[in-house]
Structures are given as structure tokens and as C-alpha cells.
Design a protein that fits this description.
Layout lengths: L1 E6 L4 E8 L3 E9 L1 H5 L6 H22 L9 E7 L3 H18 L3 E5 H12 L7 E6 L4 E8 L2 E7 L5 H11 L6 H9 L24 H16 L6 H26 L4 E5 L6 H14 L2 E3 L10 H14 L23
Parallel strand pairs: 1-4, 4-5, 6-9, 9-10
Antiparallel strand pairs: 1-2, 2-3, 6-7, 7-8
The chain binds 5'-O-[(R)-(carboxyoxy)(hydroxy)phosphoryl]adenosine and zinc ion (ZN).
Amino acid sequence: MKILGIESSCDETAASVVEDGRKVLSNVIASQVEEHKIYGGVVPEIASRRHAEAICGVVDKALSDAGCTLDDIDALAVTYAPGLIGALLVGVNYAKGLSYSTGLPLVPVHHLRGHIAANYISDEKIEPPFIALVVSGGHSHIVNVKSYTDFEIIGRTRDDAAGEAMDKAARTVGLPYPGGVNLDKISVNGDENKYKFPVPKISDSKYDFSFSGLKTFAVNLVHNASQKGEEIKAEDLGASFIKAVTDILVAHTVEAAEEFGAKKIVLAGGVSANSRLRRVMTEKCRCKGIDLYMPELKYCGDNGAMIASQGYYEFIAKKDSEEFHNLSLNAIATKSIDKV
Ligand code: KG4
Ligand code: ZN
């Protein structure tokens, strides 16, 4: 079964054809990063306009790269939540138009479920159940993935998402957007023990996160140093910050896996590309005898293949459902991963 996946929730217009949820036949991404860089972050209005300009070409290329036409496609999958509403609407309306004109089923896909599915296209063996650490620009969750379509959130951030914290720390040391990836690059040469960040404490939950205090700590370090005329090396601050964030992510996820008796941990979302997170999680899982799965780097960020993959599993779970022929589908800016 071939699914065409469409993604437009933030600043990447993406489309892909995936066979049987696992085999990527094409993966086309038009990134707007260069344009948003001038403003230091994503400007929603610009994002929507660029998606509208790019989407026809991106979908056409995804079909032609896969050697397909729409006649070969069995269903359409589209990110409908969560994300920037104007950006989501472009993908959703385009997919609705395709569904109306072709009669193909239209499968709504939750963006974070898609990030988890990036693992299904990276490793043919991985199957639920497992514990997933989902860390993106807008969300940080520990999720008990009971099946391909059954999700339970067991931990979440109380304030900033991990990616958002990375981006803010990067800005503090003068790095351009996209901050997280640039912070990762410079930090590999830094001393991660140079600055000791506080460990955030949340009294009523073992698994929740809080990253805003770490960001404030970084800002204060930079201000205090500049007032004293001292120099702060961006690579040392970056490395220490990344250590603080990733140590918390790893500790909470492994503890959750042990408590829930999970034999597998899965990383997902843009921050799963972070080199220290991947390295430390690998070491920790090896010690604990837990199997670790991580998306290939090219599938960590937003892409259409992960949406097509998750779309496949949503579709086969209730193939005959009328809801896949419902053209009243709307985009939703905020929606929890565990809600249908
Ligand atoms: O999943 P994603 O591509 O988009 C959202 O759904 O939000 O995640 C983007 C986030 C950004 O905050 C970005 O800075 C972060 O992922 N990110 C990284 C790395 N690559 C992307 N953070 C740390 N290290 C990286 N290598
Ligand atoms: Zn994302």
C-alpha cells in the first residue's frame, strides 16, 4: 500500500511516498530556514505564504521521485495538528483538494505521532510497545507507546520544550537560528563541565521536565560575565547547557522505561538529532540492557515520510472507517498526542 504524506506544520513544506509504512520511495523537503534566519525564528505569516507557494511543486516531485502518479497512491496522509495554524491549513487544504478530486481516503496525522514513526522508516524491526522520548521545538514528552495508534503521556515539560530551550541558549551565546543544531555543532569542542547548571526539581512528578530555569541560568552567566568584563566561551557554555538538558532527558526516560517494564526506548523529534543525547542515551541503554532506536538523522527533523508512515498505521487500524472520507477535516494548533 502506497501512502502520500504531506507535512506543513512549521517551516518545512514536505511530501513523501512510503510503501507499507516502512519503505521510503521519495522524500522531498523545501526548507524555509534561510528566510526565517533573518528574524531569529519562524515568522508564522511568512511560513504560511511560503508553504502555499511550495506545496504543488513539492508534492509533484515526491510523486515523480517515487516513480508514481496519483493513480498509484492508496491513501493521503496529512499533518493536521499540532503546529502553526496558518501553516497547517496549507497542507490540510491541499490534501483535502487532492482527496476530493481523486476520491482517495484522507488520513489525519498528529505531528508528534509522525515523529515517533520516523523510527519505523529508519529501522524495519522496531514495533510498539516501547517508551518514546519525543523532543521537538514545541514539545517534550515521555510517551508510553502501547501500539501504533495508542499513546499515553507519562511525562511532559512544565514550561519550555527541549528544542525551545536549546534555541534560546544558542541565541544567548550569539548563534543564529536554527539554534539547537548550531549549538550542537560548536559544543562538541567545548568543556561540558565548565559551568554547573542547577538540576530542576519537580516535587509532584518523577517524569516531568522544566527547562526554563536552565535558560535563565545561562542568560545570567552571560550577563554577569559581561558586566565583569570576563569572556565566556560559547562552546563551553553550549556544552554545559546541552549536558544539563540531555542528562535530565536520559535519566527520566530510562527511569520511565524501567518502571513500565519497557525493553525498548525510542527517540523522536528534532532534538533527537543532538549528538550528545544520542551518545549518552546509547551508553545508558547499553548498561541497562534496553534496546535503543533513533531515527536516521535525515528523518529527525520535520518530513513527509514520517507522516506517510504513521498515516499507514492509522489507516490500517480502521480502514473502513467513514472518517477517512470526511472532508470537514480542519487544522488544529494544539492537540495532545493521546487524543484521537
Ligand atoms: O521536530 P522539529 O524539527 O520541529 C518541531 O516539530 O518543533 O524540532 C525542531 C527543534 C528546534 O528547536 C531545533 O533547534 C532542535 O529541534 N534541534 C536540535 C538539533 N537539531 C534540531 N537541538 C539540539 N541538537 C540538534 N542537533
Ligand atoms: Zn516536528
